[in-house]
Amino acid sequence: MPVLEGVAVGAAIGGLNGLAGWLTIRGTFDREFRTFMIVFMGGMLLRLLFVAAVTFAILALTEVHRFGYVGGLIAAVIAAQVIEVTALVKRSRKQGDAQGPESRDAAPDSGS
């Protein structure tokens, strides 16, 4: 299998992993923080196991170009992490703005 096909397969698996993470954030962000963390961290573990199992199966059972697959997977996972962190920051800012300025003032200042 050519390199670009391996990259495409790896990117698809990484993209599905990122989509699952984004859907987890979207579905649980407005819940209690403890619930969010349990679902988010548990989901992260399940996604890691899923990607590992799928990667093992793909590399063991197909003729996919190994370096292409791994390169596509790594690129997609990094891109998905950037999107996840950006989404979390935007949603937490939006939630903080919705609570009003007193929610920002209530936090202790750790600056100089």
Characterise this structure.
By secondary structure, this protein is mostly helical. Helices cover 84% and strands 0% of the residues. The protein contains 4 helices and no strands. The protein has helices spanning 3-28, 33-61, 66-99, 101-105. Helix 1 (3-28) packs antiparallel against helix 2 and helix 1 (3-28) runs parallel beside helix 3. The protein starts with a helix and ends in a 7-residue tail after the last helix. The mean pLDDT is 85.
In a nutshell, what does this entry contain?
By secondary structure, the protein is mainly alpha-helical. The protein has helices at 3-28, 33-61, 66-99, 101-105.
Name the overall outline.
elongated
Query: Which percent range fits the helix content?
Result: over 70%
The pLDDT mean sits at: 85
Q: Catalogue the unreliable spans.
A: none
In N-to-C order, the SSE pattern is HHHH
Radius of gyration: 18 Å
Keywords:
mainly alpha, 84% helix, elongated
Layout of SSEs?
Layout: H1 3-28, H2 33-61, H3 66-99, H4 101-105
Helix pairs in contact: 1-2, 1-3
